[in-house]
Amino acid sequence: MLNIDKIMKKLKLLLVTLTMLLCCVSASAEDFSVDGIYYYITDSERLTVAVTYRGSNPDSYSNEYTRSVVIPGTVTYESKTYAVTSIGDWAFSYCSSLTSVTIPDGITSIGFFAFDNCSSLTSITLPNSLKSIGEYAFAESNIRNAEIGINAKYEEGVFFQSKIEEVKTEIQELINSTTSSETPSKLVVDMKKEDGSVATVVPKQI
Length: 206
Prior knowledge:
By secondary structure, the chain is an alpha/beta fold. The chain contains 3 helices and 14 strands.
């Protein structure tokens, strides 16, 4: 039997991807790289940057990030020290050889499709400084375990068609959504597996 909801969501995902690629990619193009990580400047006065993909668009290179990546809290370029405050749209998308990412406290946002189709990435820990997670940030990835800080707000499709099995979090709304009969949160809907069951949500110890 066809799952109409899944088909419609997949079509929406394709439409959103196409629209964003046509309209927004130039804003995320790299300005410089340090130690194999690519950045674009988000505020030249406050000296903040976002991690991004290599080149002028997400398809410029493939697998620019491999194995383990440790994102620093600050980065120095041309005698200026920038605070790394976000992970941009499509930053790690389709990096199939990426196995782990260390995200520092201080990152406040993760863009849409940031880890889309990261087939070797099996777990992710998101810092308490994180305030927003964009649409389809971890869609179709191989992430099975995630830790989400208490301050994070999330958009639609965060774990869409991923392999997510367990989420540790302090977000009470998300914890309640898996234990009550009330309308589940968007994130819980995206954590449904092929058999209709939902990934386990575990209260994270503070």
